[in-house]
Amino acid sequence: MLAYLVRRLILAVLTMWAVSVLSFVVIQLPPGDYITSYIAQMSSSGSFVSEQEANALRQQYGLDQPQYIQYIRWMKMVVHGNFGMALEYGRPVAEVIGDRIYLTMVVSVAAIIFTWCAALPIGVYSAVRQYSFGDYVATFIGFIGLAIPSFMLALILMYFGFTLFNANIGGLFSDEFAEASWSLAKLWDLTKHLPLPAVILGLAGTAQLIRIMRANLLDELGKPYVVTARARGLSEARLIIKYPVRVALNPFASTIGYLLPYVVSGSIIVSLVLSLPTVGPLLLKSLVAQDMFLAGTIVLLLGVMTVIGTFLSDLLLMWIDPRIRFEGKQ
Amino acid sequence: MTGPAGRPAPLIDEEATPATSVAEERISVATQWQLMWWRFKKHRLAMASTVVVLLFYVVVIFADFLAYSNPLASEAQRSLLPPQRIHWFDEGRFSPHVYGFTGMRDPNTFKRVYTPDVNKKIPVRFFVRGFEYRPFGLIPMSLHLIGVEGAIPEESLFLLGTDEQGRDLWSRLMYGTQTSLIIGLVGVSLSLLLGVFLGGISGLYGGILDTVIQRVIEILRSIPTIPLWMGLAAALPNDWSVTQVYFAITIIISLIGWTELARVVRGRFLSLRQEDFVMAAELCGCGQMRIIFTHLVPSFLSHIIAATTLAVPAMIISETSLSFLGLGLRPPAISWGVLLQQAQNIQALAISPWLLIPSIPVTIVILAFNFMGDGLRDAADPYGH
Amino acid sequence: MSASAPILSVRDLKTYFFPDEGIVKAVDGASFDLLPQTTLGIVGESGCGKSVTARSILRIVERPGRIVGGTILLQKNGSQVDLAQLDPSSPEMRQVRGGEIGLVFQEPMTSFSPVHTIGNQIIETIRLHHPVSKQEARERAIAAFGSVGIPKPERRIDEFAFELSGGLRQRAMIAMALSCGPRILIADEPTTALDVTTQAQILDLLRSLQEREGMTIILITHNLGVVAEMCDTVVVMYLGRVVEEGSVDAIFHNAKHPYTQALLRSIPSIRSIARTELPTIAGSIPHPYNRPAGCPFYPRCPDFKPGVCDKAEPGLTVLGDGQAVSCFLYERT
Questions:
Q1: Strand partners, B152
Q2: B2 contacts in C (CB within 8 Å)?
Q3: I want to staple B106 with a disulfide (CB 3.0 to 4.6 A). Which of B113, B246, B366, C18 is the partner?
Q4: Chain A partners of B359 at a C-beta cutoff of 8 Å?
Q5: What pLDDT score does B376 carry?
């Protein structure tokens, strides 16, 4: 068990490092550097930056150094919680991002919870009542999630919401709470607005998971221990849930690790369509404006939060499957 | 009557009838591909989906012919026209036509509102001469499937309406389909190359190389990649030509899908390596190359085909998403994502819902590829059952 | 109630499977009696319907199969219950499973859930059939483990199946099947997956259990050696039908059916002449969708009588002394 934990921890740390490198690449990718954008910004507002001043600034920010030194400098900044300045807003990046990163994770986790709650019973039912009407309905729901990219689904739902109910179904907060500080009431408002984005985001993953659950369960249903359980006199419903579902749950649980990055990715685009106050719209704007510190930091934070989430899910997996606990013992 | 007990049984019983039927004979001598085909045929949904996919690629090839209006010709006067219905009979005779529009300003919104004018009957013909195009960049042609003879901008055919700049949506959809599906195909091919190469090395040679590649794949899978690709796409210089952007986007989306394919390939190689027939080939003295191409490849080829087919929807979704965000293909390029970008504004969408129509082919194609891939995957291992 | 009344009586059992490709008549008219405190062996090649018979008795035949005819009469509390008529998911049938009839499988590893301790599973079974507390059930489970010869049962009970060796697992399986005190134990190839030494131990265990508890055992196997060692009566099955039945002595020394004779001939013997070919049975088992009409064995039978054996199915002819055979050679016209 310890070996498993250590392995996952090392992988997590490695991944976070990879994320930081990739985020740095994102920052450095566009032609020109921070100072070029700064000069462009200054000149658009009327001020003029001379060549000398530019070079002095470059030296000050260490932008004349080789890439890996710049990376180390940036990492040092990041570790101290200093993410740089957001050009367009003229404020520190951390301030601009603010709550958005947490809201992104909240929406993503809500989507995953929905996915689980939907896929598990539907998958089990599909496998146990193969080829029944309910099976086909379930498969159909799954296919909607599969075939329609989440942002398109969001668009379509917004359209119907607007034309049929004259309601704007976007956003995570009602108007009164949008700018308010956190309180229990605001939390409740958030919860009321969560279901729709969660369903839209989660539907795509639901299809996947239903298939996985159905396939795994079908595999397990034919195995001898299920027959033995029946031969011992257990009722059908009870034995199915206690035995094959439990075993089929393992590969199911390990999918969280890959579901989280997928959902976080999807939330970027969906939050644009639904105007959610998450990191998505901010990222797009910063990329278009070439505000690289902001963009790079968002990428970094998204990656780090995802890795942490995945690691937590690994712990969950360990708790579910006793076989992992015994790994290496015999 | 007692029987002759203790008589030794003859080793060959001539009077016994063979139990194998004709069907069994056929099965036992069929090649791997024939078996796959038979299994695939049974999967009716997959067969239907394959037909759908082929139809879409017919559109890809004949996009110019199927379109009737220059997709780039914008005409402010025709902005946001609703779709027209084709009326097939005119007073009893077969004479397909559409109604022209009269426009007025809505006194409330000050927007131009168009209503079909029953008096303006515009005849619709098949196999019409229209704008010029060059299929495959070769000889110029101007024949189109459907259209209006000698169309003037105000009195023309708009099967699916027009967008904000007055461009005909049907024609743009034809070209959009062409672009999106070609990018999807090329993207998946690049992914496949990358995936087979890296997955193959990983599975075949094992060791450090395998560990490194595996870790890289795991890391890529466990981080949200859309922000990365967005960053990459946003970094493309603004002054790149449409074609350059086209290629760059294709490469970017191929980077999205290779990890899955590499995993499948690696898994296959790993399990095949243990198979007895590989050891037998080695013992016969076969060289590495021969083992790989003659023995291993045919065994996993079918799985690779299935995995590749299943990877195409991801490519299409990626390109559509990126273009929708404005980070992918740039105008004047046309793809499904570019078309859907017009639908981003909910107020505009409420008035002109036909702007959402491109979402229909996207959905259909994704479903079709998924079913097709499912069928291929089920049929991929004809000896499995 | 006389001691020679059968505790279980199977009459003309028919269990068919209905997959898309056609009908498979897995059991096609099997009949036999099980006398209390004896061991009945069901022998035959793979695919002859032995396992399906066992599952039919317990009504756990999986879709697309089901019992289409026949009766399975179980002596219970002084009266007879036809198991074939009960609803498979009814509480009555579930009480029979484990409570009246226990089942032991061939694969002890896969017969236990990989994610639950064996104690969990055996305690669950006990509490299902008897209203006892968890503590009491645990003690009974430990006692059951002890009675099958598992050392340190109070520790083993909290272990997982993968932590035990093959022989211990099979003992645990037997303990679980017996934990609720069933009168009949069906053992489906209990020793096939074990090495010879462990095999002998398990057989010893079964025999001692029978003596101690007065149990009745149905032993399903394709191994004639095990049959000779363990069984009192033998039922020989081929393609879903009983072709011969009788006491173990009668079968081994005085086999009547050509199939039984061929089976016995094919056992390698220490007394056979060196350097002679081992006799085999000609042909192979027909494809389930291609059953021959008439007697199922006729395509491979050395005593095949054309016009008779391929026209009708032979009935069970009783030959006296509990021996019966299903063959036209013995049919009294």
A1: B155
A2: 329-330
A3: B113
A4: 148, 152, 155-156
A5: 82
User: Are residues B327 and A273, on separate chains, in Cβ contact within 8 Å?
Assistant: no
Quick one: pLDDT at residue C39?
92
Nearest residue on chain A to B236, judged by CA atoms?
A: A30
Where do we find the tokens 């898994």? B267
pLDDT band, very low/low/confident/very high, at B76 (cuts 50, 70, 90): low
- What residues contact residue A32 under an 8 Å CB cut-off, 6+ apart? none
Question: Could you tell me if the ipTM is greater than 0.85?
Answer: no
Helix (H) or strand (E) holding B108, with range, is none
Listed residue (A228, B233, A249, A160) closest to C125, CA to CA? A228
Q: CB distance from B366 to chain A under 8 Å?
A: yes
Amino acid at the residue B381: D
Which residues does residue B89 pair with via DSSP β-bridges, in sequence order? B94
Using one digit for the tens of pLDDT, what is the confidence trace for C76-92? 888 888 888 888 888 88
Q: Which residues of B touch A143 (CB under 8 A)?
A: 367, 370
Read off the pTM.
0.76
Residue A304's closest CA among A269, A260, A268? A260
Which of the 8 DSSP states describes residue B366?
H
What is the β-pairing status of strands C65-76 and C39-43? unpaired
Q: CB burial class (10 A; 0-12, 13-18, 19+) of residue C63?
A: exposed
User: Is the pLDDT reported for residue B385 higher than 60?
Assistant: no
With CA atoms as reference, report the closest residue to B112 among B89, B138, B82, B150. B82
d(CA C14, CA C317): 19
Name the strands in the sheet holding C241-247, side by side, starting at the edge strand that comes first in the sequence. Answer: C101-104, C184-188, C216-221, C39-43, C233-238, C241-247, C323-325, C317-320
Q: Shortest CB distance from C97 goes to which of A222, A231, A250?
A: A231
Contacts of C299 in chain B (CB under 8 A): 13, 16-17, 19
**Mean pLDDT along residues B276-302:** 75
Using the Cβ of C290 and the Cβ atoms of chain B, whether some distance falls under 8 Å is answered with yes
Find the residue in C nearest to A330 (Cα): C163
Distance in angstroms (rounded) separating the CA atoms of residues A43 and C230:
100
CA A161 – CA A311 distance, rounded (Å): 38
Q: Compute the distance between CA of residue A261 and CA of residue A194 in angstroms, rounded to an integer.
A: 19
Q: Which of C265, C280, C286 sits opposite B19 (nearest CB)?
A: C286
Give yes or no for A278 touching B (CB within 8 A): no
Q: How many residues does chain A have?
A: 330
Which residue on chain B is closest to A302 by alpha carbon? B224
Would the CB atoms of B20 and C304 count as touching at under 8 Å?
no
Please report, rounded to a whole number, the percentage of residues in chain A having pLDDT higher than 70: 87
- Is A139's Cβ below 8 Å from some Cβ in B? no
Q: Cα separation of B165 and A187, whole Å?
A: 43
Q: Which residues, 6 or more positions from B265, have their beta carbon under 8 angstroms from its beta carbon?
A: B195, B196, B199, B200, B202, B203, B300, B304
| C262 close contact with B: CB closer than 8 A | yes
What is the spatial distance between Cα A216 and Cα A206, in angstroms, rounded to a whole number? 15
The C-alpha of A237 sits at a distance from chain C's nearest C-alpha, in angstroms, of: 10
| Other beta carbons within 10 Å of B332 | 10
Name the 3-class secondary structure at A179. coil
Read off the pLDDT of each residue in A180-185 and give the average, rounded to a whole number: 76
Q: Give CA–CA dist C190/C210, Å, rounded.
A: 15
C287 and B21 within 8 Å at the Cβ level: the answer is: yes
pLDDT value for B215: 84
Q: What was the pLDDT predicted at B13?
A: 42
Which tens digit of pLDDT belongs to each residue from B85-99?
777 766 666 767 777
What is the enclosing helix (H) or strand (E) of B111? none
Nearest to A79 by CA among A307, A304, A318, A309: A304
Spatial distance between the Cα atoms of B77 and B101, rounded to a whole number of angstroms: 11
User: For A177-198, what is the mean pLDDT?
Assistant: 79
DSSP E strands: which ranges in A215-302? none
